[in-house]
Write a structure and sequence with these properties.
Blueprint (H helix, E strand, L loop, with lengths): L1 E2 L5 H11 L9 E7 L8 E4 L2 E4 L18 E9 L8 E8 L5 E2 L1 E2 L30
Parallel strand pairs: 2-7
Antiparallel strand pairs: 1-8, 2-3, 2-5, 3-4, 5-6
């Protein structure tokens, strides 16, 4: 298990499918493994293998990243619920690394006979931890 790295837009869509129609039972705000702390204007994912460049295929919430107050260096995963008639969906935003959110961790396993997620290659299970990014 490791902090969430979103490798593609299809993985982000898979998470959004899990939240569709108000069925999401978890929190709505999570830290991911993404940061730009060491290299301004260059986002990357921190993983066991080392830093990985951010895939341009993965999209941000409209207007993000905005580096509000020149202090937003970490990637936050947010569930948008009931947003202007759109289906519930996860989006990425930048936030201050000292903000307090729980971590989303990735656990991979094959999808078998789960009709609502049948097109997903991976299922993501969120493990909740009460720490902020700066504490790790």
């Amino acid at each position: 298990m490791e902090p969430l790295v979103i490798d593609s837009q299809s993985e982000l869509a898979c998470l959004s499918k899990a939240a569709k129609n108000g069925t999401w039972k978890g929190n709505f705000n999570y830290w991911t493994a993404g940061t730009q702390r060491e290299c301004r204007d260059s986002w990357s994912w921190c993983s066991r293998e080392g830093a990985r460049m951010f895939n341009d295929d993965v999209t941000w919430e409209r207007g993000q990243p905005d580096n509000n107050g020149s202090r937003e260096d970490c990637i936050h995963l947010k569930l948008l619920k009931n947003a202007k008639g759109l289906p519930d969906a996860f989006v990425l935003t930048d936030r201050s690394c000292t903000d307090r959110y729980i971590f989303a961790c990735k656990v991979k396993f094959a999808v078998m006979n789960i009709s609502s997620l049948k097109n997903c290659v991976l299922i993501h299970r969120v493990i909740l931890r009460g720490q902020n990014f700066a504490q790790l």
